[in-house]
Give the backbone structure.
Amino acid sequence: MAKQRKKCTHSKENISQFIVSPLETGIPDFVKLVNYFEYKAPMIDCVHSVGSEASVDKQNEILKKMLSESDMVSNSKFLERIQKNSMELMGLDGPDMCMKCQRMLCKKRKDETELASVLRHLRNGFAHGHTYVKRLKNQTYIVIEDFDKKKKCSAKIVITKAILNRWYKLIKEENWD
């Protein structure tokens, strides 16, 4: 049985004020992360991608580590069809939302793994500039959105730069052959 998502007690903010080009955030090492997830991550549609896919079991193992390290085991959903209430249940609907509670909702294609879905949505969010960044003294909060061809939100990922960096290191150290 899946764990229930924790109830957020943080104040909500309109994330529109934090939209920024992912390459112009001024955050140390952020361009390195964007470059990796946009061009070099495995299983994304880019000539610079690391190439071959790991087995489905290996991909599931990697995603499990990523979700565990980011405390998103119960704060992540992968759906083939995203309904309005799906976003509401995850606290991801509308522009007013908490940027401190890490969570994600990703539309998953029938022919892809959940890991491939996350990597595709990260790539698209960065590539299309749907990136919101709030910098505080001790933490950087990020919201990454992806939209389908009908301009409907197909993913929303709320994460910190520290976790995105951990994901980067975890994925890079895997053997993808």
Q: What stands out?
A: The mean pLDDT is 90.
